[in-house]
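Quality-control log, excerpt.
Job 1 of 2 completed; input and output follow.
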Amino acid sequence: MMSLMLSPSMMCADFSNLASQVKQLDEAGVDMYHMDVMDGKYVPNFALGPEDYRTIRKLTNKPLDAHLMIENPRNYVEFFSELGADLIYFCPDAEVQPARTIDDIHALGKKAGIAVNTGTSFAMVEELLPKIDYVLVMTVHPGFAGQPFQDFVLPKLDRFISAKKKYGYVLGIDGAVSRTKITKLHAQGVDNFILGTSALFGKGKSFAETINEIRKENE
């Protein structure tokens, strides 16, 4: 089993106190910053834009991903690569030729990931699995924080867990990720957990305390 990866969702951060929050998260030992990018078209919401991305990139040396919940993501992979993304996720159903998008990301020297929405089946993306580095299974409908965990995706998640050894990708989940879910699903084979308001932000304790507790619970 791969070591536990904890990736805070910066959509949930306090942007009025961003530098301090990033410093605290760095010191807490998070593994990667999760950067949701929404265009108000592919999903009915807006989230982190270029200036947000530039700012967080300047504040940390840790890896940043870019979760592109946008139409025609292939048109923007170079843009986010230049902003400093280390890993670029896109939604295959948003792209006409998703395999070419993966090739473009790799050609830029970046890791490529697919984000599998609640309505996207394992079979719809299986042919892409030999090409990608990361899979992110959405456990809420994309576009909004604060939703309940969608248990109906668990059988699909099991299929990605089963295929992980064959294809060698890092498997993560995103959406309503509670500490209970982390403990259960990490034991089953999920590697990377996107941490939002369910497990990390707004909990009335330091990020370091929460992160340390999660790691101890999953040793």
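Job 2 of 2 completed; input and output follow.
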Amino acid sequence: MKIIKVKNQIEGAQIGFDMFKQALENDAKVFGLATGSTPIKLYEVLRNSDLDFSNSISINLDEYLGLSGDDPQSYRYFMTQQLFNQKPFQHSYVPDGVKTDTALAAKEYDQIIDKHPIDLQLLGIGRNGHIGFNEPGTSFESKTHVVDLQPSTIEANARFFEKPEDVPTQAISMGIASVMSAKHILLMAYGESKAEAISKMINGPVTEEMPASILQKHNSVTIIVDEAAANKLN
């Protein structure tokens, strides 16, 4: 793991941008993307850059179950507003949150990933160590699947919804094995609330109770953290 400590999200976003730029220069074609507050500054830098993704493919990690892509709280909508409107890709894949047959939706998403191997995968990390929506206890061998979100995850996402009862309790997520299949992984984390998870991810045992710990087994991982998120590292 390569660990880069930064002062703030602005500095982190610039380093992340440099990685995306280098990936494009090295003929990367497929980018795995993440949602949430962590990548917002990075997406802002990408939006305002001269990078061209029109010949690239994006594959998002996850989507809330029950939300269509035009729902303002859906991750498809988030990506459209934060990146795709100004930086369109040749094709952008996001899991289908409204397909009745969720098993089929998961299988079809795995087929997309198999057809388009991910060159650079962007990740955040949850306070409980989840990556994508792969909560503690998720098998390291998992592919795309439906997830029951843990209370801590629901609570963390509640700030994006008008009422707590509006927060979805399930999602469809790329699996841990799918994440690990990416050639390169970039994980970004900011703030004191992520410090415990970052410490366990890097220094703790590799265990399914800390999903992000599996990244210790990947041969090309870059971690960008600010001082608050890094304050429990040795």
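Post-run check on job 2. The helical segments are 9-25, 40-47, 75-84, 102-115, 151-157, 176-180, 195-203.
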